[in-house]
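User: quick one, fold this
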Amino acid sequence: MDILATQQLLAAAPPTNVGWIAYIIIGGIAGWVAGKIIKGEGQGVIVDIIVGVIGGFIGGYLLVWANVNVAGGGWWFTFFTALLGAVILLFIVRLVRKAISK
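Assistant:
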């Protein structure tokens, strides 16, 4: 594997030391918990899981932007990062859905 391909592979990796499958599972659980925290009309478990995975990426990049060392975090740090991003994203999604339905 050449150096450029290795750099591209590392750039695409999530900003924690857990793997992709673990990141999806943790994001899914965080999205489900965020769905319970942000009460509202409800969107269903599947949408909450998808939002949790996307929220995990958002939370990770927000913490990187805030100069927090997310690369050294383990499972629990990854979970709380995903939960933070999922709560923020679910809050925004539900605000938009409310505004559209009015």
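User: anything notable?
Assistant: Residues 75-101 form the longest helix (27 residues).
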